[in-house]
Amino acid sequence: MAAMSDTGLELHDVGYRYPNSDSAVFERLNFNIAPGEFVALVGGSGVGKSTVLRCVAGLIQPSSGRMQAPANTAKGTRPSAVVFQDTRLLPWRRLRANVGYGLAGLGLSKSERDARIDEVLALIGMKAFGERWPHEISGGQAQRVGLARALAVRPHILLMDEPFSAVDALTRSRLQDELLAIWKRLNMAVLFVTHDIAEAAYLADRVCVMGGSPARIVFDERVPVEHPRARENSELQYFAQRVSDAL
């Protein structure tokens, strides 16, 4: 599979307030994601992390500011794709059909769609599971299928909204390592929303922290440890503590 993107993402003074609300969820939000960069967005519950992600995905419009998102210029691609916490697999579709759901309207032939589905199922190690139903797989496997569905559209930026928070600790660690391997292989930009500081420090090139009310970016620093990383690395743990102190 080819690299996903040659453009990044920029947010300039972006704010959001719910309709009929007098107060903003966040305001004057400024950060960027370079092509191929993995950025984790961390913050407490209710601070607006998932709302930022929905703005980037185009699911909602920001109330203020300017957002420069990757353009959709290549055939068979989308500007972004979202991996949700609850996977949102369609129970009446087999896994192959779930993975191919986002390919509709991209101008691909049936053979191209089938090849794309085969490619991403192989990438997540589940090519042999394509004819199974969602109820026949585990939670960790369902998350892999959700990731495959997002990768199938070759997004310029992959958006992940606490995708591993509903699985057990061992599965979570495995999924984190699988995500890193896929990210390195595809060289795509990633915005990863999480409340888990250790997860953010382990995965990301850069960690941004949202805080305050209305929320803003109160911390934005590169992780000082190169990949591959050991979770028990003392410098990584010290960085995680600094992130925690910023919350």
Automatic annotation (TrEMBL):
Pfam families: ABC_tran. Residues 9-237 form the ABC transporter domain. Transmembrane segments: none annotated. The keyword Transport applies. InterPro entries: AAA+_ATPase, ABC_transporter-like_ATP-bd, ABC_transporter-like_CS, ABC_transporter_ATP-bind, P-loop_NTPase. Keywords: ATP-binding, Nucleotide-binding, Transport. Belongs to the ABC transporter superfamily. This is ABC transporter ATPase.
